[in-house]
Automatic annotation (TrEMBL):
It comes from Morchella conica CCBAS932. This is Fasciclin-domain-containing protein. Residues 21-169, 171-298 form the FAS1 domain. Residues 299-359 are annotated as: Disordered. It holds the Pfam family Fasciclin. Residues 333-353 have a biased composition (Low complexity). GO terms for cellular component: fungal-type vacuole membrane. One of its GO terms (biological process) is macroautophagy. SUPFAM superfamilies: FAS1 domain.
Length: 383
């Protein structure tokens, strides 16, 4: 699949002769494995021009197989010009990141995506992708925690470097769509019940700690008795008005929530806790920040709740006299996810602290199934 020319490039470019650095169009035109990308770019002359003029960039170039899989997954759907423009610009990093710049801990690298539908931040912040080594292989995580692997690294061109990736990046989705795609249906339903969907979807630069379904079930007896105000208080206590990726969190850090109360971050033995709840899937990039999935519902009236890390003991809910219910609360009327290749959170998995980033992959991988409608919406493309 990869032409001889591409394979010989790193060798050629290691020679100290500047004129050997090829232009983007030369590389795209001579590299069989990215001919689909070259074909797509032909329909977008403005992007092609700005990429050709750009310096100090990294292009994540989806392979032909990546485009083929995308089209198969979204057959029959159409994606408009502005969405394809957003998708293409999401594949361009500001700065040169060779494969040796990838680390075993996550880095969140700014892209050239500047469409507010997919990246809406205060102070002109840029939408990011997560870059990390998994088993020494440079890997990218994009919207809905979808992963792409670098299949051919470090193809130098005169504007920077190109990595060929095996899966097209996923455009970040808003919080409510991400929640449904990730099977966080109780949280999605609770946001709807409290009339907070617009607020969390359109706020700029936020972090949300989203409890999984089991967390809502664990306090299920209390939920029907809550006033609207109390539910609103609980939910806004999970939202922080700044973007805090796992790499931004530190032990004993306090974060102020939209509700007004403080959350306390603790990092113990490589696991991240927020009050007494554990982060079980970190760093799900959304249109306006990040979601961390947690295994307990946080209580604004119990800000002193702490993790119980005694071996063999399970964490009690942060709410007094909570008892578990078997039905998932708040889910009537919430669409059920139909398909995924996303890493879905599982309560047995651990989070992504600074020391142990790759553990975010301990979530269950449910192949072929959660993203469903959201995926088709975000991915449909016609070349
Ligand atoms: C997309 O829009 C740009 C700018 O309006 C235009 O130059 C380009 O031809 C369009 N591409 C396609 C495939 O419609
Ligand atoms: C690219 O990066 C180099 C080194 O960091 C810097 O000297 C140069 O000015 C940058 N060029 C552009 C166009 O940003
Ligand atoms: C896409 O579908 C075609 C036709 O079914 C198949 O031949 C091809 O292998 C599929 N591509 C991928 C990457 O799944
Ligand atoms: C972006 O953020 C602003 C300010 O919060 C909001 O008014 C706007 O609706 C948001 N845009 C999108 C596409 O979410
Ligand atoms: C995504 O991660 C899963 C689980 O580690 C792995 O099986 C799969 O091959 C990865 N996909 C890509 C495209 O890297
Ligand atoms: C979604 O969550 C429900 C309830 O927690 C669970 O029964 C179901 O298996 C989950 N679906 C997927 C695809 O993970
Ligand atoms: C969230 O995204 C979905 C899917 O793109 C969209 O239908 C919905 O209107 C968005 N929500 C808001 C409040 O913008
Ligand atoms: C917190 O406690 C106050 C005073 O007892 C009560 O009115 C309020 O409903 C409680 N909030 C929640 C979210 O339980």
């Amino acid at each position: 699949m990869i032409s001889n020319k591409l394979l010989s490039l790193p060798l050629l470019l290691s020679l100290p002769v500047a004129s050997l650095a090829q232009s983007l169009s030369q590389i795209l035109g001579s590299t069989d494995s990215v001919s689909s990308l070259a074909a797509v770019l032909q329909g977008y002359p403005d992007i092609t021009q700005s990429l050709s003029d750009a310096r100090n960039i990294t292009i994540l170039a989806p392979s032909n197989e990546a485009f083929s899989a995308l089209m198969n997954a979204s057959s029959g759907m159409d994606m408009d010009n502005s969405t394809i423009t957003a998708l293409l610009t999401y594949h361009v990093l500001e700065g040169v990141y060779r494969s040796d710049a990838f680390r075993d801990t996550p880095q969140f690298l700014p892209t050239m995506l500047d469409d507010p539908r997919y990246g809406n931040f205060s102070n002109g912040g840029k939408q990011v992708v997560e870059a990390i080594n998994i088993n020494r292989n440079p890997t990218l995580f994009s919207g809905a925690k979808m992963n792409s692997s670098v299949s051919t690294a470090d193809v130098t061109f005169d504007g920077g470097v190109i990595h060929v990736i095996d899966t097209v990046l996923t455009l970040p989705m808003n919080v409510s769509t991400t929640a449904i795609a990730a099977n966080l249906t109780a949280a999605a339903g609770a946001l709807t019940a409290a009339d907070l969907v617009d607020t969390v979807d359109t706020a700029q630069s936020i972090t949300i700690f989203v409890p999984n379904n089991e967390a809502f079930q664990a306090i299920g007896n209390l939920l029907p008795t809550l006033s609207n105000e109390a539910l609103m208080d609980i939910l806004t206590y999970h939202v922080v008005g700044s973007v805090e990726f796992s790499s931004d969190l530190s032990d004993d850090q306090e974060l102020t929530t939209l509700q007004g109360g403080q959350l306390t971050i603790r990092i113990e033995d490589g696991s991240v806790f927020v009050n007494g709840a554990q982060v079980i899937l970190a760093d799900v990039i959304t249109t306006n920040g990040v979601v961390h999935v947690i295994d307990g519902v946080l209580n604004p009236n119990n800000t002193d709740d702490e993790p119980n890390t005694d071996a063999g003991e399970t964490q009690s809910p942060a709410f007094e006299s909570a008892t578990r219910v078997s039905e998932v609360p708040f889910t009537s009327g919430v669409p059920t996810p139909t398909g995924t290749s996303m890493v879905t959170p599982s309560s047995s998995s651990t989070s992504t602290p600074n020391e142990n980033a790759a553990s975010s992959l301990k979530g269950n991988v449910v192949t072929g199934a959660v993203i469903g409608a959201a995926m088709v919406f975000a991915f449909a493309i016609v070349v």
